[in-house]
Amino acid sequence: MTQNGIATLNLGDGKEAIELPVISGSMGPDVVDIRKLHAKSGVFTYDPGFLSTASNKSSITFIDGDKGILLYRGYPIEQLARQCNFTDVCYLLMYGELPNESEKNDFNKLVTSHTMLHEQLVKFFSGFRRDAHPMAVMVGVVGALSAFYHDALDISDVTHRELSAVRLIAKMPTIAAMAYKYNIGQPFIYPRANLSYAENFLHMMFSLPTEDYKADPRIVRALDRILILHADHEQNASTSTVRLAGSSGANPFACIAAGIACLWGPAHGGANEACLHMLEEIGDVSRINEYIKRAKDPDENYRLMGFGHRVYKNLDPRSTLMRETCHEVLNVLGLENDRLFKLALELERIALEDDYFISKKLYPNVDFYSGIVQRALGIPTSMFTAIFAMARTIGWVAQWNEMISDPEHKIGRPRQLYTGTVQRDVPAGYHQ
Ligand code: ACO
């Protein structure tokens, strides 16, 4: 981080001009450092939705939305998706480097040793209605982890932070799979130490006490890729939620529960579920134009799900990798002629040639194809966002840990532009 110039802000009315440092990071746009602006001038900046505001510095993930580039710790997502597995990526995001062979073994052993849940916590599930959405269960159960694993909640202690992070990464698949099993009325399947992260999740989802689920390695690889592609995405809404919750010193389990709640929304992690519903609703290639027309109509509050992104104004590199995985999975399963996949390919083709989508730089995002892959794997729609939460947990904990380790970190406390009634008095004689 280096100072690279001075920006001058002229507030008019004969007020003295304010000088603000311009700071460069290692890549990406410079920032104007406005931390002292209010103290120097008495004004705030106004930026709802953080369209022009860097809320923190970070060395974890880099996105160039105009070029369609995504890097985790400097490595391109394409290389990580093709050459690494999910736990390698977890290690990379957490510690900054890819693990060597012995670090890889130790980390896998460590994660595997924390996959079980406290048996009392397993009973917690029975407090939910059977038809509860898995994300509702996840918010509750992950928040409850702090009541069970409070032996390592001193966030000023590096080893406590590391243990809580590993517990979260390890237990998330168990919690997600249990939410599913509870929903469908099947007995919980406990995690196994001899399976990889993705394989273990498929085992807990699809094995029965009477029969083990044997996953095709290509299917395991597809799920592993979904997890890698969703692992982190710099300061998105749910990650910012985790950082804001954590900035007050709240424990990591409570912070991740807050992140899960934010992820649930259809403008964020809920988009993959919404996208599959949209494809089912369109139903046939012949109806695509009708839906494109609705998405373009300013009087209709309708959007094509799985299209558009706050940061990517070019192809989302994750959607290209996800489309590739979609082809592979459908081929493995003999579903090359899958109706929804064909519909999605055609919808993408038509939208990418349409002036509205071109001029607004709306491209398919990661969620456009991930729903089709997950559906082909036998994962029900209601579990899509839960799997996203499972994958994003490493990003959340890495970002939370980075924030807590930063000596400059402060409680997050945005200001506002007040537009309410000016000060007035309660009428004399007014009583309850
Ligand atoms: N379909 C049709 N029009 C769209 C779409 C879409 N999917 N997305 C944006 N637009 C239009 C908007 O109507 C707006 O038009 P206007 O300039 O005429 O008002 C313009 O494009 C810009 O849209 P904003 O909402 O201002 O862009 P923003 O950056 O705030 O939103 C978002 C990004 C939320 C992702 C948006 O594109 C969207 O709602 N997409 C659909 C939901 C989705 O797929 N979400 C997944 C995001 S990726 C993730 O979380 C992993």
Write a structural description.
This protein is mainly α and 432 residues long. Helix content is 50%, strand content 6%. The protein has 18 helices and 6 strands. The chain has helices spanning 37-41, 77-83, 86-95, 101-112, 119-124, 134-148, 158-184, 197-206, 217-229, 237-247, 252-263, 271-282, 288-296, 317-332, 339-352, 355-359, 367-376, 384-405, and strands spanning 2-9, 18-24, 31-32, 61-64, 69-72, 75-76. The protein has a 3-stranded antiparallel β-sheet with strand order 1-2-3. A 3-stranded antiparallel β-sheet has the order 4-5-6. α9 runs antiparallel to α14 and α11 packs across α18 (384-405). The longest helix is centred in the middle third of the chain and has 27 residues, at 158-184. The radius of gyration is 24 Å and the shape is globular. The termini are far apart. The model has no long low-confidence stretch (mean pLDDT 94).
Give the secondary structure arrangement, pairings included.
Blueprint: E1 2-9, E2 18-24, E3 31-32, H1 37-41, E4 61-64, E5 69-72, E6 75-76, H2 77-83, H3 86-95, H4 101-112, H5 119-124, H6 134-148, H7 158-184, H8 197-206, H9 217-229, H10 237-247, H11 252-263, H12 271-282, H13 288-296, H14 317-332, H15 339-352, H16 355-359, H17 367-376, H18 384-405
Antiparallel strand pairs: 1-2, 2-3, 4-5, 5-6
Helix pairs in contact: 3-18, 6-7, 6-11, 7-8, 7-18, 8-9, 9-14, 9-18, 10-11, 10-18, 11-18, 12-17, 14-17
Tell me which oligomeric state these chains represent: single chain
Main β sheet profile: 3 strands, antiparallel
**Number of strand segments:** 6
Strands ordered across the widest β-sheet: 1-2-3
What would the average pLDDT be, to the nearest integer? 94
Structural class assignment: mainly alpha
Alpha carbon gyration radius = 24 Å
Secondary-structure element order, as H and E? EEEHEEEHHHHHHHHHHHHHHHHH
**Ligands:** acetyl coenzyme *A
